[in-house]
Design goal:
This protein is mainly beta. It has 3 helices and 29 strands. The chain binds beta-D-glucopyranose. The site of beta-D-glucopyranose has 10 residues, from β24 and β27.
Length: about 375
């Protein structure tokens, strides 16, 4: 190779490496009603940009290019902290959910022979950690390589859960992958189920429903629920049901079918038992938007994933840029343990004991095709 060509190649490699670097910046994002300041961290790598705030550990915005190179914000949310804090039922947009993602039946569970009572906030059940879950606390934050580490100490008895729980959630952006890593430790036996509750719309937030998008979930089984959306305990095959997403399928293709589960939830809102149950990071799901070419691939170490089609969005929430969020305007793929696990001995355990360290990883990869 000629010297000139070699120099050009070296320069191109350097420019590429530069654009793959993740730039992390921090800005104030308002104050809580009690004056506590909230910050927002921006993680930027190439054309991907993620914004994470210390309130609720919320992924507030995610910019990703489509196949034509044009960027769009592909997560639902609000423009200001005030809207997150003051909107009653803000749908958990983008938030970290804890101590227990999804529902616990009748807001009760028994551990080591003792019954614990939780706040009731969803019909007869407890949803997403209670009245003031991890989505509503201001996390401590510090910049780390490629991202931000959020930490929170949940006191013994917080929202009815036993043990002082120390939690750390690390958001890092490497190339086109946003990695969410959860760690936790307790000083008493407890139960724990952590997730992130981002609503995606690969065509761009607020632009329409997610029904034309295509989905694949690497799961041969799911956990059907009763009318209050508590798992019956059955781990049922997806074969020959509208819950079979083992091949990329249009989300809206079967959502209107006469199916009891779809009726209960007014759309998809169930937990899939992933084929990968060995705790190693593996592909769990993929969403593809034929219109813009955007692809979201989800990898997780978790054993379950809650796929929810924004059935309870009803046009009452006005989000970023004045967009009104209607039914099915976003979808969630919440990597987690199965809902109501403490009340089902046949589900993978959600117990955490002193001396053990909870650790789980989810990676969101953004690409196009
Ligand atoms: C649940 C839905 C619930 C939603 C709240 C999802 O994780 O599965 O049933 O309505 O969270 O926004």
């Amino acid at each position: 190779m000629k010297l000139g060509a070699l120099l050009l190649l070296m320069m191109a490699t350097f420019v590429q490496a530069q654009s793959d670097f993740t730039k992390v910046t921090k800005k104030p994002f308002g104050k809580m009603p009690d004056g506590t300041p909230v910050e927002i961290y921006t993680l930027k790598s190439g054309k991907i940009e993620a914004r994470i705030m210390t309130y609720g550990g919320i992924l507030q915005a995610l910019q990703a290019p489509g196949r034509n190179g044009r960027d769009a914000d592909i997560v639902l949310g609000f423009d200001s902290l005030d809207q997150y804090v003051k909107t009653e039922n803000s749908a958990y947009f983008g938030a970290i959910i804890g101590r227990f993602a999804n529902r616990i039946a009748h807001a009760k569970f028994t551990l080591d022979g003792k019954t614990y009572t939780l706040p009731v906030n969803d019909g007869p059940n407890s949803l997403h950690g209670g009245l003031k879950g991890f989505d509503k606390v201001v996390w401590k934050a510090k910049e780390i390589k490629d991202g931000v580490e959020l930490t929170h100490v949940s006191k013994d008895g917080d929202q009815g859960y036993p043990g002082t729980l120390r939690v750390a959630v690390r958001y890092t952006l490497q190339g086109n992958e946003l990695r969410i890593e959860y760690a936790a430790a307790t000083d008493k036996d407890t139960v724990l189920n952590l997730t992130n509750h981002s609503y995606f719309n690969l065509a761009g937030q607020g632009t329409g429903t997610i029904l034309p998008e295509e989905l694949k979930i690497n799961a041969s089984y799911y956990t059907p629920t009763d009318a209050t959306q508590i798992p019956t305990g059955e781990i049922a095959p997806v074969a020959d049901t509208p819950f079979d997403f083992r091949k990329l399928t249009v989300i809206g293709a079967r959502i209107g079918e006469n199916n009891q589960q779809l009726h209960f939830a007014r759309g998809y809102d169930d937990n899939w038992a992933l084929d990968n149950q060995n705790g190693k990071l593996a592909e769990a799901a993929e969403v593809y938007d034929p219109a813009t070419g955007r692809v979201l691939t989800v990898f997780t170490t978790e054993s379950g994933i809650q796929f929810y089609t924004g059935n309870f969005l009803d046009g009452t929430l006005t989000g970023k840029g004045g967009h009104v969020y209607k039914k099915h305007y976003g979808l969630t793929l919440e990597t987690q343990h199965y809902p109501d696990s403490p009340n089902h001995s046949n589900f993978p355990t959600t117990e955490l004991k002193p001396g053990q360290r909870f650790h789980s990883i989810t990676v969101l990869r953004f690409s196009t095709r």
